[in-house]
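Risk mitigation, structural track. In case the binding assays with nicotinamide-adenine-dinucleotide fail to produce interpretable data, a predicted complex structure has been prepared as a fallback.
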Amino acid sequence: MKKFENKTVVITGGSGGIGTTTAKQMLDEGAKVLIVDIDKDALQKTADEIKSENLHVFAADVSDEEQVKAYADKAKELFGHVDIFFNNAGIEGKVQPLDEYPMDLFHKVIDINVKGAYYGMRYIWPLMKEKGGSIIITSSVAGMAGTANVLPYVTSKHAIVGMMRSAALEGAPHKIRVNTINPSPVDNRMMRSLEEGFAPGQGDAAKENFEQSIPLQRYATNEEVANLTMFLASDDSQFITGTINPIDGGMTA
Ligand code: NAD
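Fallback model:
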């Protein structure tokens, strides 16, 4: 029997780098997966690429409470119970000193990365409460230490660590486990955007700099991050809750 046979999964940011790769791994292991993303075209592309009767897609903005209720309703209609919630959607904002950072973008980063994570947990929670489940929230190494010029992102990734810890305590009596994953730079779109932000026109040099700050001297891959998520989603981690889980090539050591 496959590891996630008959398991039901909701993934936000599901058509992004980490989300899509995780969805594929879950499907390969027999899960039924609903991916949620704001980007309709990317959702369609992901569905066309994966082609599985066990994959469902739903377009929603995680920072809009009504749209979150709508994707939770969709999960209820499809699955009834949700076993695994990968609360993963997020944006990087931009690279800018704190006294020049656009205020509307500060709000947007907090709305998506913090409020969006809370809305998702809040409305998926009732679908998990009866039988238990696993919630994995995507924080970052930016949720463990500061970085200059990306204050809103760092703030948001720290905030969801606190959210995870409180939710883990509330979830324990219901057998709902809650953990964060905390990747260092991952080799995908988000890092291309940040490299360009830190060193406009010199993205490759910025990448090299980042890589040198990582003891294992490279970025993580989407697959490696998905592997960790799979572990935290599975019964192999059934005694693990309330934890932060760096996947960072030694960066925070
Ligand atoms: P990505 O940009 O490929 O994926 C993010 C996805 O979230 C995209 O598909 C995007 O459309 C979606 N999204 C953005 N705003 C949304 C909204 N309002 N509602 C619904 N969906 C929305 O990048 P990724 O690396 O796959 O990012 C996934 C998570 O990993 C994010 O939370 C990110 O902060 C975190 N993370 C990424 C890195 C990295 O280096 N890429 C490192 C640490 C943590």
